[in-house]
Amino acid sequence: MKMEEIKAVFLAELKQVEHSEQLSAFWTKFLGKSGEVQKLMGGIKNVPKEEKKDYGKKVNEIKNWAQSLYDEKKDEIDRLMIAARYAKEAVDVTLPAKHVVSGNLHPLTSMKYEMIDVFAGMGFDIFEGPEIEDDDHNFTRLNVLKDHPSRDMQDTFWLTEDLLLRTHTSPGQIRVMDSRKPPIKVLVPGKVYRSDSDATHSPMFSQMEGLVVDENITLCDLQGMLDQFVKAIFSEDVKTRLRPSYFPFTEPSVEVDVSCFRCGGAGCSLCKGTGWIEVLGGGIVNKKVLENCGIDSSKYSGLAFGIGIERIAMLKYGIDHMGKLFENDIEFLKQFKA
Ligand code: DAH
Predict the structure, then answer these.
(1) Which residues contact 203 (CB under 8 A, 6 or more apart)?
(2) Directed axis angle between helix 3-16 and helix 52-89, to 10°?
């Protein structure tokens, strides 16, 4: 092509360029290594010697002219592309956000955490034992002898003659005392199993065992700790009362009642008119149990308690049937959103 012709085609084709792919094809055709402008440069060898200088100058002018028009076009296309991208990616920040439904902890889980928190504040740490236990840990070494009623076939899920689903978290006491030396201050939370089912019982439920072994541990320590516990869980003005009771693994043994946090002790349906609600069992660790674990009972004494986590949750939240805690009814569970 001649120079004038190239200029005309260049201008005509430049007009047609609308996007970056076309632009790069256009560049290759005119300004690339084997493009039209380069070809003009190469044509210099066929130009008579005296015209070479003039020819070279014109080709250079064309080259600069083409390059600057190309640059202008490129700027224009870049701007258009960016504007198109912005338009496409625009976000309307005034649109309402999508509603994300968030869940909440199961009331038993949060109850357990809440209880652990209170005792952790008193220096307790956590130990977790197995749910399948043997007779020795679940009964014998806790001083529950062979003819004790809690071994009855109706209460215990036996797996073999020796293995069973633990009926309480108390075997955790034995496992802790077997593996640690006093001073001991542990909580053993976990699932326990009994063949029992009605409004306030379920074949699987959860307990939290507490065990403290040190020198000079007395019932006063037990009452002080449990007093703190019920105040933190129920309310500051709740009082505790210890009643004598019997457990093979504690001596003396107590049932712990709290003053009714609904009626303040006057008597209502929750406390069955008595003003008091039974919340847990505990006592001073029976010397036989300490000795069964190789702990010198003339030097050390211990306190222990066992709390039913469902029971505390039912009392605290006014739940009348334990089954509600296991049915996974979402409408029920939603009420415990913090
Ligand atoms: N293990 C008892 C139960 O399941 C609860 C209990 C009572 C635990 C007294 C204790 C305790 O550690 O000292 O009914």
Answers:
(1) 157, 193, 194, 195, 196, 197
(2) 0
Statement: residue 131 has pLDDT above 80:
yes
Q: How confident is the model at residue 199 (pLDDT cuts 50, 70, 90)?
A: confident
Whose CA is closest to atom 8 on ligand 1?
Answer: 306
pLDDT reading at 246 higher than 90: yes
User: Does residue 286's CB lie within 6 angstroms of at least one atom of ligand 1?
Assistant: no
Tokens of 269: 């349906």
Ligand 1 midpoint to CA 218 (Å): 17
Read off the pLDDT of residues 311-326 as tens digits, 9 standing for 90 and up: 999 999 989 899 999 9
- The token pair at 165 is 């689903």
Taking the C-alpha atoms of residue 291 and residue 76, their distance in angstroms, rounded to an integer, is 92
Residues 288 and 295: their CA atoms lie apart, in Å, by: 10
CA of 156 to the centre of ligand 1 (A): 15
- Share the mean pLDDT of the chain: 93
Ligand 1 pocket residue status of 308, Cβ below 6 Å: no
Statement: residue 1 has pLDDT above 80: no
pTM of the model: 0.73
d(CA 28, CA 120): 76
pLDDT at 292 over 90: yes
Strands (DSSP E) found in 12-168:
125-126, 132-134, 163-165
Q: How far is residue 276 CA from its own chain's centroid?
A: 36
Please give the number of the atom of ligand 1 that sits closest to the Cα of 250: 13
Quick check: CB of 306 below 6 Å from ligand 1?
yes
- Residue 302 Cβ contacting ligand 1 at under 6 Å: no
User: For residue 280, what pLDDT is reported?
Assistant: 95
DSSP state of 10: H
**Residue ranges per domain, the chain?**
3-89, 107-334
The ligand 1 atom nearest the CA atom of 306: 8
Measure 208 CA to ligand 1 centroid, in angstroms: 9
> 107-334 — its CATH code?
3.30.930.10
